[in-house]
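User: Can you predict the 3D structure of Putative 3-hydroxyacyl-CoA dehydrogenase? Sequence below.
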Amino acid sequence: MQQVTVLGTGVLGSQIIFQAAYKGKDVVAYDISDDMLAKLPERWEYLKKAYRHDFPDVTDEALDVAVSRIRSTSDLKDALKDADIVIESVPERLDIKQSTWRKVSEVAPAKTVFCTNSSTLLPSRMAPFTDRPDRFLSLHFANEIWKNNTGEVMAQPQTDPKVFDSVVQFAEEIGMVPIRVRKEQPGYVLNSMLVPFLRAAADLWVRDVASIEDIDKTWRIATGAPLGPFQFYDLIGMMTPYMLNKDSSDPVSREFAERIKTEYIDKGRLGKGAGHGFYDYE
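Assistant: Sure. Here are the predicted structure tokens for Putative 3-hydroxyacyl-CoA dehydrogenase:
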């Protein structure tokens, strides 16, 4: 799997693109927004700085070579024409993902393996919208994938076991530690543990039990963890929790979505990747 196409160039999509290129893959970055594509050079500079910070031995030459392996386009047919594997990282809404996979199936080569990076949605909800359910599965990344490098590989009932094994190998090739999820599970392993933790923090904030800073401080001091829950939200980026909570049946979750929209998203505070979220970053 040398030719990689990534659908979506947001926070996590851009990380997948850069990491795959850094590990020697030829990568096409696809987005429906030309404005998003125009911002990618700035994003590559941000990621170069992050790699230098976390890997002191990395060279400028290696980072520049990674960028040279990336091509961007807003033409879906062009993006997929040579793809061995396509990784979807579009907004976390089932209708958007289903529509995307229907369009991808119309133009992707027969050889292409399809992977969704969905954080919460089951691949079996998307597989019927493809023309190859036997070649469809999940490959889920944690944020800041160059150092938080788990790659959760999760099949759905129709996935060919050989395809599953090939994606495990691909994950290893791009520097991930493959986590074999043996049964289809909303949230995989990571988010099945992380999401309840983050929801508890949101509930405390929305109900004015404690401030964001004190909630984070409590968690860090009492557990020895390096990050509090709202620092995790900043890593994830504001749009994902907003999309996941805005239509919730739980009024606290809906209020959380509304508050992060009006107090943060509408002010351009989109998370650590944008330099500002719940906290400010250099």
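Residues 8 and 274 are 16 Å apart (CA to CA). The longest helix spans residues 190-206.
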